[in-house]
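Two folds, back to back.
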Amino acid sequence: MDISGRDNVLAALTSPDLTVAPPAPPASAPATLAWLRAGVPRFSRGPEHASRRGYAQAAIDRVDPAALRSTARRLAEQTLQGVRGQDVDPTTAVARRVPARALADELGLPSVAVADVAAVARVYLTGTGDGADQAEIRAADEAVARLVTAVGGAPDDPTAALVGVLVQSYEATAVLIAKAAAGAVVHSGRPSSEVVSTTLDADPPTAGTRRTAIVDARIGAATIAAGETVFVTIGEAGFPFGAGPHACPGAAHAVAIAEGALDALRAHPPRRS
């Protein structure tokens, strides 16, 4: 079942009768993908969620969005120089390399490898359940272990939250940059901030999220049975970063990264040799 419409989506995202789907099960081994998913706010609820979100918010609050935008632009310019003449798409190269690198640098974590963030991001949402690609899971486990070391070395909730911030900056921000770059062709006379804002309104990077009913619940005219999972269409409802307890705590930072990357893509259009 899909939950759509602004009022219904907001009700679903803020309802105490619905929870993230699915919550991550406990993990037996530290510094693995399963450990990470079990310890981040994204897959938590109740008091644990509040505590873990506090760690993530504290990490994000260390970063000034204006400085982050400047760093993202600088890194995007370097990336464009590095791929010039290569048989790669420059926008994709910027989108896939810049967000995690910019955020890690502004957090003072130079040892973080973007390749490790990418390896975890590939399976972060789906986890280790049935049908998971075991090679990707092993790669993610190894990457999580390296990221734990890179951000501090202790496999605890604050570390999981920090690694989670980096991983969650990867995919959605990359998609936002790519979509904004495409939109910039149409809106060539408008500043990057307006192009990114328009992209978030018209073509957001995340279409929706899932929620599972803890008890029989009602959202608008829809009745959701306990245990039933629904798809909440946050994008078209005007909540590109979600809402309620699980709203993205780094929305301003994702926008800043996208704006900085787009500044570089527009000011230094790549040339192929």
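---
second:
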Amino acid sequence: MPNPQDLRIVVVGAGIGGLTAALALQKFGFRPKVFEQAATLGEVGAGLTISPNSARIFDFLGLADALAAISTTPQIQQIRHCRSGRVLMEIPRGEGPRQRYGAGYYYVHRADLHALLVRRILANDPGAIALDAKVQTVEAREDGATLVFTRRPPVDCDVAIGADGVRSAVRDSLFPLSAAKFTGHVAWRGLVPAERVPSRVRDAAPGIHIGPAQLFMRYPLRQGQLINYVAFARDASWTNDSWSARASVADVVAAFEGWDDLALEVIKATPEDGAFKWALFVREPMPSWRIGRVSLLGDAAHAMLPFMGQGAAMSIEDGLVLARALAAFTDPTQALIRYEAARHNHAGFVQAKSRALAEHLEAADPDRFGEQKFENEEALGLFAYDATTVAL
């Protein structure tokens, strides 16, 4: 069997999915090279849910204690009525997920998780990540690939993985893709210092408020120092899908006027430069993610709406399954075929269910919530999915 270190593997994109793939590849003895277009390493200020299906991957990679140290574990989550604040459903968390699924349930600041992954990767290989390396095109071949950059010489490799997000240069250079479709949803996000809100808001259980065509989600980060929120509404006039477009706090307050104070108090406490707005687009699932020895991972392959909180988890799962496949098969092409076979239908299923959940949660009458079966990520069995053992 060839030495894994002889296989030249390139990962394009140093987001959570690409870094998870790189660390997993290192665990199996490979020496991947990550190319990131940004000039500095970092992540946007936003929260992530790490549910058991993704938490067990970090356990497998030896990051269990490090992840717990930077995370918050909710004891319960609540679904509340948009105006009255009445609790419509409680979902127990705490140690329950670990007892049921063998891994925990966490809230984590995206930047903290990103920094943890970077540290571990660079500790294994100080030269593993190249910055200011924007990929222009990728040429896929049966025996490898060539990456063409905007400001550096081309790079040849045996395997190339596009983990470069919804605007993937790797995907767009290889696959004719139908245009993304605007869903009519917009979202605002913000991070609020906890001391800016009343204690009753800080002490309330995290969760969501649901209302007609709107949804508000909030949860704590960094041991309760911050409150992360995402607010969804229908707005056909806004079609900018950039996460970095700033929004007026007054506009968010106006959109949720009359809602329960647990939601409004958080919005009103947002620092004036701390609100962001983006439009939600969807694409139809791709028939395949691979050409030759180039494949896709995470949002580049299967970007999904955020209503199920599983976008990052799908990228993290992809990263480990990809590494397992490359370790299990001596032929890299066969490994990429098996990786896609293991992940394609599962990711497509989560894409579809995330979209359907939005319609359920934003139904016309929140007082009737519970009359239909509630198909959240746990009810659908996603927490039980095990990327460390799934058949290849």
